[in-house]
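Field reference: sequence -> structure
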Amino acid sequence: MRKHHTLVLALFCALMITSAQEKTLNEIASFKIKNSGSFIDKNKDVDGYYFYYEVDKLKKGKREYAIKMLDNNLNDIATKSYVDDKNTILANSKFNNQALMFAMVNVKEKHYKLVTFDRRGKQGNDITIPVNKKEMKWLNAMVKSGNFNMLFPVDNKGFIFNYVIDNKKIGYGLKYVATDGGKSWIYKSPDESKQIHSINPIEANEKVVVAMETSKKSILSQSGNTKILVIDIETGKLLFEKEYDKEENPRLITNAFLSENKELVLLGEYFNKGDNIITDKSLGLFSQVLQLDGAVLNDSKISWTNKIDKMMPPNSKGKKTNRGYVYFHDIIRTQEGSYYGIGERYKKTASAGGIAAAVLNGGRGRNTVTQLTITDALVFKFSDKFDLEDIEVFKKGKSRAPSLVDFGSPQLNAHALKAFGAFDYEYTQIDANRDRFYSMFIDYERLKGEKNKLAFKSIIYNDGQLTEDKIYLQQSKGKIDFRVLPAKLGHVALLEYNKKKKTVNLHLEKLNIDNKIADRD
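Structure field:
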């Protein structure tokens, strides 16, 4: 399986770079880095970077940590000290354009701790939530499933912490922590339910939280009920819920957002009546538009076979290719009102390595004999009413990822494997006027007559047109590791760690996509 956050640690950007800014962080290299990342908002615009690392061992099992913050030009903002127990583990971190939140877990003291810092590094009040061994075990299993957002940022408002509650069965809690001076609240599953409940926030904004709730009778059940819950962001009160039951209306919701008219748009895949979304194949894509009182304004479906396959462009030899499935990473609304779905083509195939391992182990162990084979990047254009208008294909090398389970549908495996870095997609950045966006991929190019290369590719939308550009990434040798991070528009950040010299350098490199757009303008 090709994980990007691991793979990219062995890359160096060597060609087509026009300028660079650099920051040396030698004081960090002497310590243990626990976490690092970008201050990034909903449009993937980067305001800066943070590094969370261990500084010193203190008495009575305490540890001193530090959080270093840089702006998007790599200038120092602040370095703040933080003291905690040695058994505290950093589980997740997110930025909401106002503050940075760390979700901590302490196994020994049995609690979660939510720690916040504002943009200048000032620490807020810690929030502690008790947790028992059973809840921690379930939370760990849900995180590994890939379909679980533990910490969800709400831009310029707060954070949602998603945790497990051990009641009569297993339930959930959504704790909203306001950072804008508003009200914090908790929304929980029913205490007396005889079902196992879990929830996954998929959208949060200035009006509502949209979350997908699933419930089933037991841990071994391969089917259950799915609901969309819409919760008022200010009060934590349930505005409405909409059920997509197996018998009448099975659907897999993958994207949700508010339109300019403050209507809720749900996107995903639809199935035959009676189908199981865990094991059965979907019939196509759907879009559903609802008012914030739950009234359905529009419900449209696009069939894979009757519509999408007929619109799919032929390959370079003029032949129609096997579509397989499409995983949508993002849906972008442009200034003109149309929508663009950024996806990758994939299909479920046999895994030679998995089959060999299963044979050697005599069928024992957890080896899967199937895999997802991921190929081209696809961009779907939808009208403002979500009618499919066009599909463009951008060629890309193959990536392969072992299935989590052999019996699951390709769609279910894709949604789970996304969290483990199985796909080549990195992120999409949108400019403030929404008339341009840049979707980034890492591609393994198999070249004839020369060594294969890794490329950092950009699909660029500008003035209603889609173009492609790239820079090459060459594999490094020796003791130097690299990691690619998002940067401000038109840039990419490269984090370099020299194991021998114990130095950390952060390079801010300008890409040539802006020059290409300027040429077209």
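Note: The first strand starts at residue 11 and ends at 13.
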